[in-house]
């Protein structure tokens, strides 16, 4: 919860990736709060108050995963809605002539996005395709698996693009972005 709160303020992309990881952690512990409490939360050096807040947070996520039928796969509705907001901003940024650096980063990453979509789920939007790729790389790195130079290059472009989108998201939510029709 504490990491999630900080990431949400700093980078919406990192926040979403973190929340996807938390969903997987919950699944790894069988969506069981007592097991998560004992085997996961117990690893951290929390004060009693922090531990209680963390347990409540995980408890709410476990409840939502059970209620939404996400015990095996998929993302929580709260994360899907947030992703939808990010996708909407992406489209608004591309349609505006006021954000040429964003458009340039997008078009630089686009060949890699197209390639990923052709290899994977063609139903996913471009932003979720990018986040899936970043999450996949995170998992490979955690497993200490080798990543090809071509994949590293693609991930570098996608990271730059998604980072820019994330920065614009934070700015839009704190200050508001000015589009042509505003």
Describe the structure.
With 182 residues, the protein is an all-alpha fold. It contains eight helices and no strands. Helix 2 packs antiparallel against helix 5, helix 2 crosses helix 7 and helix 7 packs across helix 8. The longest helix has 26 residues. It is globular, with a radius of gyration of 18 Å.
Head-to-tail CA distance between termini: 35 Å
Helical stretch count? 8
Which structural class best describes the helix and strand composition? mainly alpha
Shape: globular
Number of strands: 0
What is the multimeric organization of the chains shown?
A: single chain
Strand content: under 5%
How would you spell out the order of helices and strands? HHHHHHHH
**Residue share in helix:** over 70%
Largest sheet, strands/sense/barrel: none
In the predicted model, the low-confidence regions spanning at least 5 consecutive residues are none
What is the averaged pLDDT score?
94
**Rg of Cα set:** 18 Å
């Amino acid at each position: 919860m504490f990491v999630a709160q900080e990431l949400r303020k700093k980078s919406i992309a990192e926040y979403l990736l973190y929340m996807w990881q938390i969903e997987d952690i919950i699944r790894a512990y069988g969506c069981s709060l007592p097991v998560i409490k004992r085997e996961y939360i117990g690893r951290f050096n929390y004060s009693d108050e922090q531990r209680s807040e963390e347990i409540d947070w995980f408890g709410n996520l476990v409840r939502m995963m059970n209620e939404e039928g996400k015990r095996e796969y998929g993302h929580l509705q709260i994360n899907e809605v947030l992703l939808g907001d990010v996708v909407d901003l992406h489209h608004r940024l591309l349609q505006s002539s006021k954000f040429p650096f964003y458009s340039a980063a997008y078009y630089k990453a686009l060949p890699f996005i197209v390639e990923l979509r052709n290899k994977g789920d063609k139903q996913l939007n471009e932003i979720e395709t990018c986040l899936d790729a970043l999450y996949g790389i995170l998992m490979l790195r955690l497993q200490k698996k080798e990543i090809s130079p071509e994949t590293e290059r693609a991930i570098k472009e996608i990271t730059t693009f998604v980072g820019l989108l994330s920065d614009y998201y934070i700015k839009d939510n704190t200050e508001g972005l000015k589009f042509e029709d505003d």
